[in-house]
């Protein structure tokens, strides 16, 4: 998106996620807070210079609200741990996610990820990164997050991810060899070979750039998946931001479960079975399962995809079901209580 020239002061609108009178509750925020339309949120205006820092502005708003960012062990915190920015869907409900780091574009046009301290991130950097389609959301409409984030598993390093893609390739290759002669796999050989080849190409592209991404761009595997899936981008944009060739950018997108929209020329999260299978396989790798568990999961997912055209739920989706059902019930109860005058 194109924003105003940065020579002039910037009008910033800070929206509040959470209750300033009861900030930092335990666990996941109540469904009502995620579902709250943007127009119903408390917002605070600031006019800032382009070189003003995001973290300092958010801390200033927190102080105005009487909110202290503190930790039981370390005491008062000097920086904001999480942030998010307004997106179009926020008019209906909060789109998220909570960001603990920000993707910023450097002088070469490459995206860097080791930007953890928001006190060192200026609004000029945010605007430039949004214009390059690296940053999610409107850089002039940040959220002050008054809630703790919840972790989601163990993130492997680059060599581990490459090795796990080797395992996924092995499973696909072994099944592809016998696909033409074994029961339910008859007729599916072409699809399995396509999945195998995309896994290998993605693996090779990551292996070629892992050192660059880690040492020069501060990028680890979990960041890459979130970054690619968050915002539709063209092959040229992705290649430029990652500092790789267009062929390598395409390979990485396929391996992370994205699909190419021919109408727009952009890559986005795929909703077809093949994209979801590859993306789900990569997500499984991110969660720290051992080789034996992963091999069984890869085989189970491929078998169901071939036999039924569907995929099994990922393990953490099954684990979340009871909590989500309870949260939905609590939201309905709260809505009924508010609508009952007695």
Blueprint (SSEs and pairs):
Layout lengths: L9 E8 L13 H5 L7 E6 L5 H11 L5 E2 L3 E2 L6 E4 L17 E2 L5 E2 L10 H9 L6 E8 L12 H21 L10 H27 L5 H10 L2 E2 H8 L3 H10 L2 E4 L4 E4 L3 H14 L4 H18 L6 H25 L3
Parallel strand pairs: 1-8
Antiparallel strand pairs: 1-2, 3-4, 5-8, 6-7, 9-11, 10-11
Beta-strand residue percentage: 5-15%
Label the structural class: alpha+beta
Query: How many distinct folded domains?
Result: 2
Low-confidence stretches: none
Number of strands: 11
* N-to-C SSE string, H for helix and E for strand: EHEHEEEEEHEHHHEHHEEHHH
Overall residue-averaged pLDDT value? 83
> Gap between N and C termini, in Å?
49 Å
Structure notes:
With 342 residues, the protein is an alpha+beta fold. The protein has two domains: 10-145, no CATH class; 158-317, no CATH class. The chain has eleven helices and eleven strands. Helix 4 (158-178) packs across helix 9 (273-286), helix 5 crosses helix 8 and helix 9 runs antiparallel to helix 10 (291-308).
Summarize the structure.
With 342 residues, the chain is an alpha+beta fold.
Feature tags:
single chain, 342 residues, alpha+beta, 2 domains, four-stranded mixed beta sheet, three-stranded antiparallel beta sheet, 11 strands
